[in-house]
Amino acid sequence: MSNLNQELIDAVLALVDSIPSGRVATYGQIARLIGRPKNARLVGKILSQSELYGGKHPCHRVVNAAGRLAPGWEDQKHLLWAEGVDFKANGCVDLKVYLWNRLSFFLCERGNFCF
């Protein structure tokens, strides 16, 4: 992944680090927030190799647009459960309940209204 711009990697990881416990974001949501709306797969690639960039990043809080978990990563479900995230009968996260709304959390953190 050496051909990726370090600023792009840093932007993705900074956003992922800001997802609160008990909430999830989608790959596409992260891509839009960094100004790369068509690069959801690139976000996934960066997160799949996040250990290369140091630090512990809560990558388990990122799911696909349907709320599905990353294939082959059994710990993701347990980590989300431990944070209070429940799953629908089909195994997906209920995005209507747990999707991170960056604006609402930004306002809440600054003592404005929380919803």
Automatic annotation (TrEMBL):
Top-level lineage group: Bacteria
Domain Methylated-DNA-[protein]-cysteine S-methyltransferase DNA binding: 10-85
DNA damage in keyword set: yes
Keywords: DNA damage, Methyltransferase, Transferase
Annotated signal sequence range: none
Coiled-coil features, chain-numbered ranges: none
A Pfam family it matches: DNA_binding_1
SUPFAM superfamilies: Methylated DNA-protein cysteine methyltransferase, C-terminal domain (SSF46767)
Any single GO BP term: methylation
Listed transmembrane segments: none
InterPro entries: ATL_DNA_repair, MethylDNA_cys_MeTrfase_DNA-bd, MethylDNA_cys_MeTrfase_DNAb, WH-like_DNA-bd_sf
GO molecular function: methyltransferase activity
Name of the protein this chain belongs to: Cysteine methyltransferase
Species of provenance: Streptococcus sanguinis
